[in-house]
Structures are given as structure tokens and as C-alpha cells.
Design a protein that fits this description.
By secondary structure, the protein is of the alpha+beta class. The chain is built from 4 helices and 3 strands. It has one domain. The longest helix has 23 residues.
Length: 115
């Protein structure tokens, strides 16, 4: 017997798969569904209504959601990188000797770990 009780080793328990996808992705993907004839799908909370991710199996949908999420996170991270507000020659950049100081490096490393 398989998870869905059919005896078909390729069968998927749709409710359990949907619950697992929802548990994993509901914070970012406000709609996750399965529709007979259409397959599996998801919609990101910030995407336009017609921007949906689809897959023929729950695993395929999960891989596509992960790829979409990673792409969105990369874009978001790029937006968070502060850009210089002054010309490079006027920036207050610590000297190389200061950056080589073990105490400075420890503070920077500790600060990054605590982000």
C-alpha cells in the first residue's frame, strides 16, 4: 500500500503534499493549490495575479518555488546594499592597517554573526 492507499507507487497523497508545501511556504506564497487537470501551483504574495508558478508534481512545484524564492531574495539583498552617497575620494574609509587590527576584525565578525 502507498501513502494514498491506491497501491500505485507513483501516486501522491495530495492533501499531505499540499499541507507540507503550505507549511513550508505559506509565509511567502499566499496561494498554493492542486487542481485536477491543471496540476500544482503557487502564487507569491508580492507577485501580480497572473504570475503563478506551476508544476506537475509537488516535488517539481517545491523546486520551482525554491528557485523563485531564491531569485526574489537575491533581488531583495541587492536592494539592501547601501550605496555610497558621496564621491569615492571623500568617503571615510578606514585605513588598511586599521582593518588588519585583530580587534577590529573581531568586532566586524561578531557583528556579522549577530545580524
Amino acid at each position: 500500500m502507498t501513502a494514498d492507499g491506491s497501491g500505485d507507487p507513483s501516486a501522491v497523497d495530495g492533501e499531505r503534499a499540499l499541507d507540507a508545501l503550505t507549511l513550508a511556504w505559506a509565509d511567502e506564497y499566499d496561494e498554493i493549490w492542486f487542481r485536477d487537470g491543471a496540476g500544482w501551483g503557487a502564487h507569491h504574495k508580492d507577485a501580480p495575479d497572473d504570475d503563478v508558478i506551476t508544476g506537475s508534481t509537488p516535488d517539481e512545484l517545491n523546486r520551482k518555488i525554491r528557485a523563485d524564492w531564491l531569485r526574489r531574495e537575491a533581488v531583495r539583498a541587492e536592494l539592501l546594499i547601501p550605496l555610497p552617497t558621496r564621491e569615492p575620494e571623500h568617503l571615510d574609509v578606514p585605513s588598511a592597517a586599521t582593518m588588519d587590527d585583530p580587534h577590529v576584525l573581531h568586532r566586524v565578525h561578531t557583528g556579522l554573526k549577530n545580524l
